[in-house]
Write a structure and sequence with these properties.
CATH class of the largest domain: Alpha Beta
Structural class: alpha/beta
Radius of gyration: 21 Å
Shape: globular
Number of strands: 18
CATH superfamily of the largest domain: Vaccinia Virus protein VP39
Low-confidence stretches: 308-312
Largest sheet: 7 strands, mixed
Bound molecules: S-adenosylmethionine
Strand content: 25-35%
């Protein structure tokens, strides 16, 4: 029954590849470890955080009888995979999506797919502890190789009792009980005096309140980018550093910022507000700028992702380059940065247009691609 059910779930619209799965050992272990608690939970008392493709939400409903499950997913593609898998399995009405701050309201069981960043786990723990039922059990599962003692410590900041289960198939679950409600410490903010910018970050946002070295390489050439541009897009904006730097340096620019991560979008909005730029920057959550019309933008800046899960899947970056090509006007410019050994120039030339190296050191290459007409 369990295997049959899981066999119906797919990753789409997420990247499909032979080594990538829609249901993993962590999903299975989480559901098994939480089975007794799930059996006792009433309607609306089960919450799920960062379900990858729907296995936890739909597994809780189909295999453990959970009803009115609430789910918060940072990744838009995960949200969409859940929708498709729910349709495929006839479970569309079994759950509803909720913002992270509300997902744990009154919950007695919370299933969490452990995020990679400790701050992401910290924000989840703080927000769940603030609103869950006093007798809540929070199950946090991950791959053993990604789990550290620091995760137990982070959970202990918001829960009295944290224990670990035995590992199975290289996965492990931490169980937290005894919530200690307190204020959330997110978004965090940091002033970068050398750039004249304040960066705000929720827990799961790339680089947190730091500024990535690749991002810094792009910031150094900001003045060279499409001087006559009227509209710019920060594609995969994260905390919105590039959008804020552009809006602040170039008052004539209309700036869009887009990211598929809920945490990134909330962070970019907070960064815009912290720099007094909220009226100048529109931030949207979408996949590969799908809400931005074709040929509507003069300048795209992008520090692209290169990793999907543990694997280096170049399609993630290629998708953003193709999106940049679509939204740019002919003659518009895509400015991007990548690790020098990756040699992205041929892909950029093919997807966007003539591509020149604008800056290079042993670690990073910054390129400018001009959209062909
Ligand atoms: C390397 S980070 C760069 C973040 C930010 N621009 C900076 O420089 O700090 C890449 C960002 O791209 C986002 N991203 C990845 N795939 C995406 C997609 N398909 N659509 C929109 N954003 C995406 C990630 O969520 C992440 O925030």
């Amino acid at each position: 029954m369990t295997a049959d059910f899981f066999a119906q779930l797919h990753r789409a619209p997420d990247v499909e590849a032979p080594e990538l799965v829609a249901v993993d050992a962590t999903d299975r272990l989480l559901l098994d470890e939480a089975a007794a608690a799930l059996a006792l939970a009433g309607p609306g008392e089960v919450a799920v955080v960062d379900d990858s493709h729907g296995a936890l939400t739909l597994g809780a409903a189909a295999l453990h009888g959970a009803t009115d499950v609430r789910v918060a997913q940072d990744a838009l593609v995960g949200e969409r995979a859940l929708v498709r898998n729910a349709e495929r399995t006839g479970l569309t009405g079994a759950y509803r999506s909720a913002p992270l701050a509300e997902v744990g309201t009154g919950a007695r069981v919370v299933l969490v797919k452990a995020p990679k960043a400790l701050d992401a786990l910290r924000e989840i723990a703080e927000l769940v502890a603030a609103v869950a039922a006093p007798d809540v059990s929070v199950f946090v599962g991950g791959r053993v190789k990604h789990m550290t003692h620091a995760m137990n410590d982070v959970l202990r900041e918001s829960f009295d009792d944290v224990s670990a289960t035995l590992a199975r198939q290289k996965s492990r679950v931490l169980v937290a009980r005894g919530p200690r409600p307190g204020p959330s410490s997110f978004p965090r903010s940091r002033q970068h005096a050398e750039l004249g910018l304040t960066v705000c970050a929720h827990g799961a946002a790339f680089a947190g309140t730091r500024i990535d070295l690749g991002t810094r390489a792009l910031l150094r050439v900001l003045a060279d980018m499409a001087p006559a541009a009227g509209t710019a897009l920060d594609l995969g904006c994260g905390t919105g550093v590039l959008a804020a730097a552009l809006a602040s340096a170039r008052p004539e620019l209309r700036v869009l910022a887009a990211d598929q991560s809920a945490s990134a979008v909330a962070s970019a909005r907070a960064t815009a507000a912290a720099n007094g730029l909220e009226a100048r920057i529109d931030v949207v959550r979408d996949d590969a700028a799908e809400t931005v019309p074709d040929a509507s933008v003069d300048l795209v800046v992008c520090n692209p992702p290169f990793h999907v899960g543990a694997a280096v899947v170049t399609t993630a970056a290629d998708r953003l380059f193709a999106a940049a090509a679509r939204v740019l006007q002919p003659g518009g410019e895509l400015w991007t940065v990548y690790n020098s050994p990756l040699r992205y120039r041929p892909a950029l030339a093919r997807l966007v247009g003539p591509t020149r190296v604008a800056a290079q050191d042993p670690r990073f290459t910054v390129t400018c691609s001009t959209r062909r007409g």
